[in-house]
Amino acid sequence: xxxxxxxxxxxxxxxxxxxxxxxxxxxxxxxxxxxxxxxxxxxxxxxxxxxxxxxxxxxxxxxxxxxxxxxxxxxxxxxxxxxxxxxxxxxxxxxxxxxxxxxxxxxxxxxxxxxxxxxxxxxxxxxxxxxxxxxxxxxxxxxxxxxxxxxxxxxxxxxxxxxxxxxxxxxxxxxxxxxxxxxxxxxxxxxxxxxxxxxxxxxxxxxxxxxxxxxxxxxxxxxxxxxxxxxxxxxxxxxxxxxxxxxxxxxxxxxxxxxxxxxxxxxxxxxxxxxxxxxxxxxxxxxxxxxxxxxxxxxxxxxxxxxxxxxxxxxx
Length: 316
Known about the structure:
The chain is built from ten helices and 13 strands. It has 316 residues and is α/β, with parallel strands linked by helices. The two termini are 30 Å apart.
């Protein structure tokens, strides 16, 4: 579907691991000491929330599909409503997790503390797929982001990708590991891990591992690995690979060779959600007819804008 545009249809943003995100800013964060925040905020988050919020902030229509439950459910729903998100959710019987971002003003570092989600009830997967099917007709692109909470069936992401492709949607996968590998036969348009996620999904081979320095693989070794994967994914599944590397350049397979797009340096306040802002910009530009390089430039721009703001997954 790339290049055809989605008209007035929505972007369907799926994440099955919602978050209540607390961001705390410290003047100087000291380990093993009492630290008092100088500023803090609470937001609905999780990768799908962030993608949907960014798309909405750029004037596009976005639907976010997730699950919710437990005593934090109504709080999470009210935070989504305050952001004007078009939220589709099903009952999970499981508390929404908390995650924390600790920002150290002394060195501008941001430390993430992540809770693992509690298992969802056994019926949650069927409920999600039913809501997914109800939403497909009004959407022109599918973005699946992040991990899924325990309790969901292993095949839920591959099933979503297959149904979306059958319906003619642009499909972008920002997932990793077995979820990603099992989804590839659906021939997603874009596979978009960050470098760490890529290496967790496709580790360097034994020969490459033996050539590694004690500290880290070389840039050339990593680049060759990504190029080889990009060629394989495109030849086998028709999927284009885009690999983000934080503040370093983005690598992408354009169908014939490995391309590279520089990231414009920014003064970062809170990078949480910048990868999701990237996904939003990438998908929207492709869906509206842009080239892959144009999409990556816009994605990097939105990722940088997000990093300059305290609120995660926001460019406003």
